[in-house]
Amino acid sequence: MTNDFKGKLERYDKNEMTPEEKKEFEKEMSAKEEQWMRPTLEKTKQRKILRASKWKARINTALTVIPLLLLILMISSFLTNFYYYGFSDDYSRSQKLSDVINFSQVITDPYSNKYTADTKVGMFLNMNATKELRKTVGKESYPIGEMEVNFLFSKMGIVDKKFYGKDDQLPEIHHPSLLSDYGIDSSSEWERLEMLPEGTVSTAFVTFDEVLSTEKVFEHFKGKDLDVLWFPVVTSEETGDHYPISNIGFPNYPIFHSDDWKLISKTEEKSFLGSSSSETRAAPNYVEGDTEMLHKYFKKTLRFLADYQEEFDEIQQMHGDIQIKEALSYLEDDGISHHGVVITGPTKEVLSLKEEKWIGAIQVDEVALWNWSN
Q: How confident is the model at residue 242 (pLDDT cuts 50, 70, 90)?
């Protein structure tokens, strides 16, 4: 604003102008006002400046948020690992949850292996566990699917079982008292075994004609060229319809827990990068037929799983409704006995059981080409 314009403005405000001067100055003011209100930049330049400002703001925001997110992820990963694995050699949550999966499967799936589930922790307190589903025919065990379980804060989610072929349905093992009541006939199964050629191996689910002790089962199979895979146990005096569909049992080896593996030796190595250690542990020695040992670790497994009934219900394979605490109470009071057994071996050796009076029923599950050796 020039001094001349300021002078005119002052005279205009003091009403010292003549009408002509006043009219002329008002025109001048209108022209000045239009000049002052005119944008100093062209619209194109304005848009460029505005766009650049927006991107600058976005980049500044990203530079602030990304490090914050990385920090949150690092903290979350650290807390998740600490929660599931801890920092010591103590029994970790990861091991415990893996054992819940493994033990639930071992006592309900005659084909389950004894190896623990693979676990992998993620972020935000979640953990994933996977375990192979397998079958055994003769001397070979092969995968038939996979079970995947997700945990959040130790709470188990849906158990996802995927089979590589058709969904697996295990044969039924009945209670001996139901064989005649329900007219269960194994003629077609024996005929199937007769028709199968030499050079094959079979796996069969056998029902006894009466309840037997574990010692008696070993005695019956002594000298036979067959492997006993699994011992279903009687868990109630009732012989209701639940027996064909509810089975728990134990494999032909003790179900060892982590605290059963005793430390034999431990070595530590130190270097300028730190120190490392290695351990050698061993489980108690087992000789096949040691029924006391089998019973001891089976009951120990039931006591462990009694606190995980809900998880057990989701994982179990024998499509039943076993209440672990009730079953354990029955076994503690009445002892362990068996209404059947799962076996595998040469087909003709399985067929020879037809002549045994203690066999009540049989159902063949799998057949394969010869893979047998002792």
A: very low
